[in-house]
Amino acid sequence: MSHVPDLAAPPAPVTAQPRGWAVAGVLAGAAGFSALVLESGLAMFDQKEAYADAALMYAETHDRSLIIAVFLPLMVLAALTAAIFGAGLRRWLAAQSPAGSLLPELAGWGALLVAALSLVGSGPVTEVYFQVLHTYNPADPDIAMTLQRLLDTLPWVWTGLLLSTGSLTVAALRHGAAPRWLGWVSAVFTVLMIAVNVFPQQYLTGYLGAIWLVIAGAGFALRRRPAV
C-alpha cells in the first residue's frame, strides 16, 4: 500500500542559522577601533626632541602605562573575534556562492590575517609594560622604545582585510551571496583601503577595517530570518 503524504501537515520549521559569528565581527571592530585609538596616544610625544631621544621617549611612556595595559586585552579580543567572524563569513559565502568559488576562502583568510597580525603586533606590550614600570631596573630605553615603535606599527596593519572586503563585494554584487547594500559598502571600503596603502597611510587600514567589521557584522547579525 503506497504512502500518501499528508498535504495538510504544516511545513517543517526552518532552522535559524546561528549569528554568533556576525556578533563577533561587531565586537572585533569595536575592540580594534578602541585599541587603536588608545594606542595612538603612545605614538605621539609632547616634546619634539623625544622622537630622536629614546630616554625622553621612555620618560613620557612611563606615564602612559595604563594605556599599555588596556591596549593588550582589547587587541587580543579584536584578534580572536575577528578570527571567529572570518570563519563564519567563509561558511556563509561557501553556502551562497557558486561551487568551487575562491571567494569564501579569501574572505576567511583576510580576517585571519588581521587576527594574526593583531596578536603578533600586540605581543611587545607585555615587555614594554614591565620595562616602563621599572621592573627591570635599570631598564634600557633603547630596547624598550624599539619594542614600542613595533607596537606603534604592526597592530595597525589590517591590510589583509582587503581580501575580505573585496571578496564580499564580488560575492554580493555578482553572485547575490550577501545583501547588495553590504556589497556596495564593502566596495567603498575596498577602494579606501587600497588608497591609504598607495599613498602611503597604511595605519589608517586599522580604523577603516574596524569600521567595516562593525558594519558587516551588524548587517549579517540583523538580517531578516527566512519566512517559515
UniProtKB/TrEMBL annotation:
<feature type="transmembrane region" description="Helical">
    <location>
        <begin position="205"/>
        <end position="222"/>
    </location>
</feature>
<keyword id="KW-0812">Transmembrane</keyword>
<feature type="transmembrane region" description="Helical">
    <location>
        <begin position="101"/>
        <end position="120"/>
    </location>
</feature>
<feature type="transmembrane region" description="Helical">
    <location>
        <begin position="65"/>
        <end position="89"/>
    </location>
</feature>
<feature type="transmembrane region" description="Helical">
    <location>
        <begin position="21"/>
        <end position="45"/>
    </location>
</feature>
<keyword id="KW-1133">Transmembrane helix</keyword>
<feature type="transmembrane region" description="Helical">
    <location>
        <begin position="181"/>
        <end position="199"/>
    </location>
</feature>
<protein>
    <recommendedName>
        <fullName>DUF4386 family protein</fullName>
    </recommendedName>
</protein>
<keyword id="KW-0472">Membrane</keyword>
